[in-house]
Specification:
The chain is built from eight helices and 17 strands. The chain is an alpha+beta fold and about 325 residues long. It folds into two domains: about 150 residues, no CATH class; about 140 residues, no CATH class.
Length: about 325
């Protein structure tokens, strides 16, 4: 009996030691050269680089005016906040086990995002994030020059952190259409085939001035004008369609609806040309114009002669008000 107790005690000691030295590997036991994934002070982060093997490169830079995307664009605030939050929460749990190691390394060699983080002191982190989740939404990360990847988790969350390290500019871009912090000075809407609805709104004086191509006896609705100018600050496109295969054809010979010109104080003017969207397999409702069918719910827009965007009908109608609407007495 006493011998059995000794054997049992020895076995328990062996199990504890095996767990401690083989499986446990506390975060504190990992050197930063092996598992430097957690960013303790995200407020100190100045620049984040995200890149992959498809040459998709993202530069996020913190400036006094806010974050910039690839130096000239504005990123989505929600995407920035989510990325910073996951950086401060992500913790190395343990190295990838031997049975998974080779497969994880093989997959990460072709499916990864390289992450570089800089503060005022210089580069503080460089690691690779696997783009495919492991069992139970595990995220695999490999520190630069380290010998083994790690299982990284968010405390108390069954979340795949890798989904937040994306590289597409169109996904990162702020979808706000008419970007700008200064007040709108002028708005001009020019309809392609309905010039009687075109107008120019001048907001530079003490009171807005509206001019158009027809005489209207009803008094001008200044509340509606004020609401319209405020609305222009909070309109978003559905998405950027710069890779759409028929983009050039639509810009060159597509049916135009209207063009909007917006000038803000102290910043360059912006413009958007609206196009009817040809029907496709995704069209739910069509509209016939001049004997040709177009999508009733979606429009395309060319923003600042550069970005081709998709717009919902609701957003398009909010931008393209007609000249007589500003004289109607109901203020919706």
């Amino acid at each position: 009996m006493k011998k059995n107790l000794l054997y049992l005690a020895a076995l328990l000691v062996l199990l504890v030691l095996t767990y401690y030295f083989v499986f446990r590997e506390d975060n504190e036991a990992y050197s930063k050269s092996e598992a430097n994934f957690t960013v303790e002070d995200t407020a100190a982060v100045k620049t984040i680089f995200l890149s992959n093997l498809r040459n998709e490169n993202i530069k996020l830079n913190r400036t006094p005016a806010g974050w910039t995307l690839n130096d000239t664009l504005r990123p989505r605030p929600d995407a920035i906040n989510a990325l910073l939050r996951v950086m401060t929460l992500q913790q190395p749990e343990q190295p990838v086990t031997t049975s998974y190691h080779d497969n994880v390394v093989k997959d990460m060699s072709v499916n990864n995002t390289k992450v570089e983080i800089y503060t005022a002191k210089g580069k503080t982190h460089t690691f690779y994030v696997g783009k495919n989740p492991g069992p139970n939404n595990e995220t695999y990360m490999l520190n630069e020059n380290a010998k083994r990847p790690f299982v990284v988790k968010l405390p108390l969350q069954n979340t795949f952190a890798g989904v937040l390290y994306f590289n597409s500019v169109s996904e990162w871009r702020n979808k706000r259409i008419f970007e700008g912090a200064t007040p709108v000075e002028t708005v001009e809407v020019v309809y392609k085939d309905s010039v009687q609805y075109s107008y120019k709104l001048d907001n530079t004086g003490l009171r807005a001035v509206l001019t158009g191509n027809r005489q209207i006896a009803t008094p001008l609705n200044y509340k509606r004008i004020s609401d319209y100018l405020k609305l222009l600050d909070n309109l978003f496109c559905t998405g950027f369609e710069d890779t759409y295969i028929y983009k050039d054809s639509i810009i060159k010979s597509g049916r135009q609806l209207a063009t909007v010109f917006i000038k803000r104080k102290e910043v360059p003017a912006q413009q958007m040309t609206f196009y009817f969207t040809p029907v496709s397999q995704g069209t739910k409702k069509a509209i016939n114009i001049g004997g040709k069918e177009y999508d009733y719910d979606q429009f395309f827009g060319l923003l600042n002669q550069k970005d081709f965007v998709q717009l919902s009908r609701k957003t398009t109608e909010k931008i393209l008000r007609s000249y007589p609407e500003f004289y109607q007495m109901n203020a919706d």
